[in-house]
Amino acid sequence: MPDSMRRFARHSFLFITSCIITIFLFSWLSMWAIHEVPGIGTVVFPTMTIFLLVFHAIIAGFMLMKYICEKHRLYLMPIACAFAGSALLMLGTLSSYPQWYLCNAGRLINYNDAIIFYFFRNIMMAVLFVIAVVLYHFRKHDMHVRSIHAWILTAIGIFMASMILLSWLYSSKHPLLNVHFIDNLTYTFTPLWRGMTGWFLIALWCITLIILLTVSRLRNIFWYSGGFFCVCYIVTLWVLLSSDHSAGYTWYQARFFETLTTLFLIFVLLCDVFNLYRRSHDKYLDSYQNSIRDPLTRLYNRRYFYDTLTQQLSRTTLAHPLSVIVSDLDRFKRINDQYGHLQGDKVIQFVSRVLQNAVREEDVAARVGGEEFALLLTNTSATEAYNVAERIRQAICQQDPKRSDGQLPEPITISMGVFTATEHDLSAEACVQRADQAMYAAKEAGRNRVVVWQ
């Protein structure tokens, strides 16, 4: 079996297991909640509808913002339109409950209109989910131009508007267009709903689920949540079909289950937003580190060294001295000429590790030139800085090809100059220049030594 098939099989098993557990918990919670509030049935359903409306509007906003940020994810727009259209159709559902907030108008409720809006809402959402999956399948094709996006979004908008218009016309608004899913006198579901219509919606969501699983292969949590949403709507329809009339608990249980499902989907979207933020933050940190570090040695670069030195000098006093060490490898050009630049890079990297290991976390080790390095030591006197530089010099000159695991083709030496600032009125350039002068004095004195600027 190919790796892709095994991965899809694992994802499918995880998806099915998660759906079974979550649906069981949601069903138990919805049954418990509905039975705990049996006396306010006239207000429960429209209240949950308002929550559902707000949740769907939030999801639509999420999808729209993600599409605006990433225009190549066109498949998000059908989902955004599905939830936006669903929110609009739930306004029609609320209109079927006149004066519901007074808790005394149960006999005026038009249950048939409410389920008509529900019927068209299911068709619209299922079809738009299929369109989203199809667009996801073709996401890498040459279709991400403004004109194609405009045509697709226009077609989606026309379809959504037609569903909303048809639901409004069929819901007692047009004398020639009417359908009876519920008898408003007896609150009984008609054979039309319990027969062909209800099973048609279940079949539509099952087809949507199969297409979603086949195309998306459950590659990420977004499609996991989409598949879970389809499963939950299938379960919701099954709950409705299990009852003979709308006055029973199943009417409220189905809406409560749908509300919990949507709330869960919002939680998944928030997790997706958090992961997106985390990835963006990590990329920012990586980008920032790359901008302040030398690519070969991963020591800080020249700009960061001077910026930090300028900041530290403003806080320098006699009690808090600041030391700068400038160092240069002796006769490094001969190593490049004799052994090649790749070997020269290994020498640079070896010396960089020695420097990095010799300083504290609050200090700065930087590569400021080809074979030139600089150290910034906070709260360090001239004597202490000299001792640090001397330890580094000895650690480098005592190495040979065998001790360095082949990093050094031959023993090398380093010359180092030290300057310690005790006043804040010096510039960064002046500090480095004085340390540089001390380093050149070490070169002139025979190399492989440390000189403190006097």
From TrEMBL:
Q: Does the keyword Nucleotide-binding apply?
A: yes
The record's listing under PROSITE patterns reads: GGDEF
What is its pathway? Purine metabolism; 3',5'-cyclic di-GMP biosynthesis
What's the cofactor?
Mg(2+)
Pfam families with a match to the protein in the record: GGDEF, MASE4
> By its UniProt entry, which CDD domains does this protein fall under?
GGDEF (cd01949)
Q: Where is the GGDEF domain?
A: 320-454
Question: What UniProt keywords apply to this chain's record, in alphabetical order?
Answer: GTP-binding, Membrane, Nucleotide-binding, Transmembrane, Transmembrane helix
Q: Name one GO molecular function term.
A: GTP binding
- On the tree of life, the source organism's domain of life is Bacteria
Q: Which named protein is this?
A: diguanylate cyclase
Q: What is the lineage of its organism?
A: Bacteria, Pseudomonadati, Pseudomonadota, Gammaproteobacteria, Enterobacterales
